[in-house]
Amino acid sequence: MSTAIITILEDIAPQFVGESADKVNRFIGYAQCEINECNFSDEDCLNQATAFYTAHLLTKASEDSSLAGSLKRKKEGDLEREFSTFDGLESTLNPSQYLAKYEQMVKDRTITFVMRECNDS
């Protein structure tokens, strides 16, 4: 996989620095399958878009386990459980922001054509 994409991913989503290279590379592959390369005129923009979309996918994949919080208290009688609240990663973007940044990059590079009717009168 591209080391440029991994470097950008580490810059924009430092919470994934400790992830296994195999997992990160798999998710980069998933992201690359979803991205239309024609939307990006140069490799640097494509790498950045791929990194943002990869961060979105990785965050969504880990969301279920991390949002639950850790087990704070467990009671055997009547099966009571209490989980600590999730305080999030304040210094990083949430998945919707990663996706929003990717979508903004696509939007900024999309040409919109407007058809108007011409009257020859």
What this model shows, in words?
There is one protein chain. The protein is mainly alpha-helical. It has helices at 3-12, 21-34, 43-67, 95-108; strands at 71-75, 80-83. It has a two-stranded antiparallel sheet. The termini are far apart. Residues 66-71 and 84-91 have low confidence and may be disordered.
Helix content percent band: 40-55%
Task: Summarize the main sheet.
Answer: 2 strands, antiparallel
Q: Which residues form runs of ≥5 with pLDDT under 50?
A: 66-71, 84-91
Order of helices and strands: HHHEEH
Mean pLDDT equals 80
The figure for the number of domains is 1
Give Rg in angstroms. Answer: 20 Å
Q: What is the tally of beta strands?
A: 2
Number of DSSP helical runs: 4
| Straight-line N-to-C gap | 59 Å
Tell me, briefly, the overall form. flat
The secondary-structure class comes to mainly alpha
Percent in strands:
5-15%
Major sheet: arrangement of strands: 1-2
In brief:
With 121 residues, this protein is mainly alpha-helical. It has helices spanning 3-12, 21-34, 43-67, 95-108; strands at 71-75, 80-83. The chain has one domain.
What is the topology?
Elements (H helix, E strand, L loop, with lengths): L2 H10 L8 H14 L8 H25 L3 E5 L4 E4 L11 H14 L13
Antiparallel strand pairs: 1-2
Helix pairs in contact: 1-3, 2-3, 3-4
